[in-house]
Here is the input.
Amino acid sequence: MSSSSNSPTVTAGVPVASQAEAPKRLPWAKWFALSASFQEERLFLLLAVFIGLFSGLAVVCFRLAIDWSRIWLLGPLPQPHSWRLLVAPTAAGLILAALVMRVFPSVRGSGVNQTKAALYIYNGYIPFRTAIGKFITAALAIGSGQSLGPEDPSLQIGASLASALGRRLELSREKLRLLAPVGAAAGLAAAFNAPISAVLFVIEEVIGRWSAGILGSVVLSAISSVVVVRWFLGSEPLFRIPSVSLVRPTELIAYAVLGVAGGVAAVIFARAIGYLRARLKARPRWTQYFQPALAGLLIGLIGYLGFPQVMGAGYEYMDQAMHDQFTWKVLAILAGLKILATTLSFVSGTPGGMFAPTLFIGAMLGGAVGGAERIFYPHLTGSTGTYALVGMGVLFAGFLRAPMTSVFMVLEVSGNYSIIVPVILANGIAYVISRSLQPTPIFDMLTRQDGLELPSLEEQREQVVLRVEDAMRVSTDPVLNSEESVQQAYQRVQESQADFFLVRLHPSGWASVSRDLLKRLVSEGKGEMTLGPMLPTGRLPYLHPDLPLEAALRHVYEAPLVPVVSRADFRKLEGVISREAVLNKYKVVSREERG
Amino acid sequence: MNHVILEPITRRPPVVIAGLVVIAVLAFLAVNRLVHRFQEQEKAWARQLFESGQADLRAGKPEKALEELRAALTYSRDNFQYQLALARALRDTGRTEESEAYLINLWEHLPQDGAVNLALGRLYAREQSLDKAIQYYHNAVYGVWGADADTRRRDARLELIEFLLREHAFPQAQADLITLAASEPLSPELQLQVARLFAQAQDNEHALAQFREVLNQDHGNTAALAGAGDAAFRLGRYRTAEGYLQNAVKADPEDAQAKHLLETSSLILQADPFGRRVSSAERNRRVRRAFEQAGKRLESCASAKGIDLNSPSPSTGLPSLKARWNAMKPRLGELNAPSAADMPDAVMDFVFEIEQQTKIACGPPAELDQALLLLSQDRAGAEQ
Here is the structure.
C-alpha cells in the first residue's frame, strides 16, 4: 500500500550503498519514468474525484429507491394498527432472503466488513454485482421497515463502484487496493452528508491506520460525493437543534451520566447481536430463507402495536425526538425496542447498515436520560434535542467504537459546534465503558464470526510499539573520524575489544571500518594516509531513537552496527544498534506477552 | 511500485478522462431527471398532507394536524410555509420548545422575514418573555412582508401593544402607540382603536387627542364621545368630560358607564368649591356641604365597621377624625370672616382627609363622597 511512501526507510538516512547498487538507467528513461509516475499520481487523484461523483450519484439514487419503496410498501404516513406494517416487512423479507441466498450472496450484512475484507484479502476486488445487489436489497429492506440504515450499504456501494472502475481502467493491484477505501469514503460521505466523519470512519475502521499516501484521494472523493448529494438533495444538516450553552460547568455531570448509560446500552446491543448472530448462522441453511421474513414480522408487530418509529432508518423520528415530540418514557421505550428490532434485522442476515439504528438508539436514549434528569434537576439548561444529539455520538462511540468519528459526526449532522464539550466528555466515557465491558469491537466480532481476521485500529492502538531506543546501547567503543590518519585510527582501536568501529564522515554521514582492515592498511604502509578515502564501502544508514524498531530491521542486516543519532545533530551519536540487539528485544517482548 | 511499467490509464489519459466526463454528465442528467420527478411527487404528497393538517387544525384536531404537518415536512423539508405552519401549530399546542427550534432555524435563514419574526414574537409573548417578544415583534414591524405589507406591519405593532398592555408595560406600549399614531393616516376605526389603547396605556392626554381626531371626522361617534369623556374625566377635566359624556349619553342612553361618569362629573362640578367662576358665598356653601357630607361619611363608615366614634381616648383612626370634626364644626361660622382667608382650604383639606381615611377603612364611596374623593385626588396630583 503506502508503505513505500511513509515507511521509516525514507525518514532514515539514505544508504549510499543502495544508491550505488541501483541499476544504471539512461537519462531519457529516468525522465520518462518520473514523468509517468507524476502523471499517474495526478490521474489517481482525478480518478478519486470521479469515484466521488459516481458514488454520490449512486447514493442519491439509493436514497430515492429507499423512499420509493417505503412509500410504496408502508404508505406516506405509517400509522399503528395498519395491516401494511405486518405484511410489507414479512413479504419483503421472503424476497430478500431469496435474493441474498440465490442471486447476491455477497450483500449480506452491513457492508463495512465486506469492504475491509476486499481491501485486505481480495486486493481491493469487489464485484460490481455487489453494488447492484446491495442497492436493490438494502433499499427493499429499509423501505419495507427492517430496522437498518442506508449508510453502511452506501459505503459498500461506493467501494464496489470504485473497484469496478479501477478494474475497467486496468489499474495495478496496488492501486486497486487503494480504490476500495476511496470509494467507501465517498459512499459514506454521501449517505451522511458529512465528509469529515466519512473520512475519519474509513481511516478508523476500514483502512485501520493513518496513511498519508491515500488521505488525499479519500478526502477528494468524500468531498466530491458530498457536493453531488448536496446538489440534488440540499445542504441542510440532518438535524436542527438550537445552540447549546452550558450555563454551569456542573451540567457536564448530566452528560457524563448519559455517557455511562450509552456505554452500557452499547454493550447490551453488541452482545445481543454477537450472541444471536452466531446462533442463527449455525442453524440449517434452509432456515436462512425465512429468517429475514420472521425478523420483518416481529418488527412489523412492534410497529403495529404502536411503535412504527422503530421501522426503517428512522431519521424523521430522531428529528422529532430532538424537538421534544416524545416524553422521556416513550423515548426510553423506543431506544429499547430499536435495540431489539435492529438486532433481529441484522442477525437475520438482512442487508442493511447499523449506523442509522445506532444513531436512533442513541438519540432516544439521550433524550430519555436528559428528560429523566430534568425531572430531578429542573435547573438543567440543555434541551431534549441537545441530549438526543449527544446520545447519538455516545452510542456511536460505544457501539461502533469509532471515537473520533463519533465526535465529528455529531458536529456535522447537526451543523452545531457549540455542543462539542458535552459530546467529547460523554463519548469518551461511553467508549471507555464499552471497551472495558466488551473488549472486542462489534466489527471485529462479526469478522471473526465469519472466520476472517482483519486488522483493527483499536487493537493496533493497544499493541506495545517497540522503538529503536528500546534495543540500542550506548557505544563505549571509540568513534573514528574520517579526517584522521589510518595510523591514528588503528592506535585508537587498540583500546577496544570490538571488531567493527563507526567512522564519522566529514561533513556529515557515517561509515564503518573493521579492525582487520585498519591493520592491513597499516601493514601495507598506508598508515599516514587519511582514513576517509580508504573506507571500502559507502555511507551507513543511520536511525533515530524514536523510530519504530521495524525500521532498524531493514538496516541491521546490511551492517554489523548501525549508528543511532540525534535528530537535532546527525553527527551526535546517541547509541548503536545491532541485529542481535533487535532480535533479542523481540524475543524478550514475545516472551513477556506469552506470560 | 514499478514506475517503468505504465498502466493503461497513464497511457491514454485524455481518452479515459473524456470517457469519464461523458459518463458523469450522462449520469448526472439521468439522476437529475429522476430526482426532479421524485421531488415533484414528494411535493404533491407534502401539499396533500399540509392541506389535510391545516383542515384538521381548523377542525380542532391539533394532534392529528401536527402529525400531518410533520409528515408534510419530511417530504418537503425546506418548505418555508410548512415549517412556519408546523411551528405555529406547535406553539399553539403549547410545545414552545419545539416550536422555538423550528422558528429559530427559520429565522437564521430569513432574519428579515416578517412572518417568522411575528411567530417568534408571539411565541415569546406566550412565554411572557418581554424583552425577546418586543425584539421579535419589532423585527416583524420593520421586517419584510409580501402582499399588503403596511397592514401586516400595523397589525404586528397593534398585537405588540396589546401584549405590552397585558404585561402592564405601559411606557413601552405608549411609545409604540405614539409611533403608530404618527406613522400613517389612520381610518376612524383604527384611530378609535388607537385612542382606546392609549387610554388602556394610561396615556389619557394622547387618548383624548385621538378621540377628538375621531370626532373631528365623525361628530356623532358615540364610542369616541364616551371615550373622550372618559379620558377627560381621568385627566380631571370634568367640565370637558361632562360635555362629551352628555352627548354620549344622549346618543346612547344605555351606556351605563358614560351615565355614571356623567353623574360623577356633574357632582364634582357642583361640589368643587375651588372651581372657576364660583362666588365666595357659593364656595362657602360648598365647603359647608362638603364638611357635613364628610361627617356623615365618617359616621356611616364607623357604624359599618362597628367603631365607637365617642371613644374616651380618640388618639388615632376614625374616632380621632370625629373628634377633630367636632372641634372644627363650631369654627365653620368663620368662613365668611375676612380674617379667615385660609379657612376654606383648611376645611377642605380636612374633608379630603376624611374621605381618604374612610376609603381605606370602608372601601370606595359613592355619589358626593366619590366626587369629594376624586377632588382630593386631583388636588393632591395638582400639588405634586
In short: Chain A has three domains: 33-233, 249-455, 468-593.
